[in-house]
Amino acid sequence: MRGHSTEKDRYWLHILLFFLTLLSTTWAGAQMTGRFFVYEAASPLFSFVGQPISWPFILDGFRFGGSLLLFLTVHEFGHYFAARRHLVSTSLPYYIPFPFNGIGTFGAVIRIRQQIPSMRKLFDIGAAGPLAGFVVALVVLIVGFATLPGPDYLEGMPGHERLKEHIAQNGAFPDEIISEEADEQSVTLMVGMTPLYWLISTFFDDVPPMWEMYHYPLLFAGWLGLFFTALNLLPVGQLDGGHILYALVGPKWHSLVAKSFVLVLLLSGGIGFIQEMKPVFWSWDPLIGELAWPILTTILFFYVYKIFRGSFRVIAPVLIVLVASIAGGSTVGWIVDKVGYSGWLIWCLLIILLIRVDHPPVVYMEPLTRRRKILAVLSLLIFALCFSIKPLYIG
User: Fold this and answer.
1) Is there a contact between 136 and 211 (Cβ–Cβ < 8 Å)?
2) Which residue among 90, 156, 305, 312 is least packed, with the fewest CB closer than 10 Å?
3) Half-sphere exposure of residue 160, counting CA atoms within 13 Å on the CB side?
């Protein structure tokens, strides 16, 4: 018996979404890698939207797209098989192709078709995905490091002229970003350092700087695997990390940790908002520039109101402390540079409206076994190793 749901999987839909996502991630990976000189030198198989498609183009794309899809598949099937083992009805993974966000996908999800009845089953299903996916991400990342080419690899990239000049003169990557000429109006995709990525990178030579890492398909796919693992392990609501934390410490401590963590994300998001938006508002008009703080305070009030469910006895002091902390942090350069990330305001909106901060109650409360507690601590450690307060941003 596989749970109580009689809903059947539409295999054709799951297969179609898988291949569409593979195509979109492969295309995104080839575009990001950007070795157009290599592509143009090869005999093109055909052209698509003006881009000559050659075997080097396809292979670069597949290194990225195939690795990313392998991670997503193992992660979701970790949940799937754990649910089936506990006779909880669930769907096969739904892959989400999206060719316009730079990486070709918004990930994958499975749908649990019934309430998970007990703490241990909740833990097993929640932890199986990120633990399985983390192993794949780690292997992809290590393979990416082990197969790194020398710095002259970037000679095959369009643009980057000052960077390539530096590499030609010094035989190594620069320690800091080398900006191109102002009239090129170029922007740089910045990829956040994580503790685990930094640790592994110390064992290898020719490691590219974080602002050029996306040109290396396996390396970037491995980093994204760590990033998606960390996102799923955020200790809030019904994310995998929320399930694990709830099963480990119970509803009271889960609520405290989840609320505190979301407030930390809002602190980072608020500092990033002031850093990025206040100059924009001032460029429009000084009077509009003065609206940056009232706008941010209104946004934060909405979030805090939702987090504490309209309890003004708590909302007022929390909001005052949060705004004061953002104001203080925004005046310290290294805090702004290292901590401020406006993207968390978007993620917090998704958490509050869709994922929720608190975890719904479980029917059968039971303590975790010793083995499960060890796996729970391991999951939290993996989160700490994979998390970056500034994951992806434009520099």
Assistant:
1) no
2) 312
3) 23
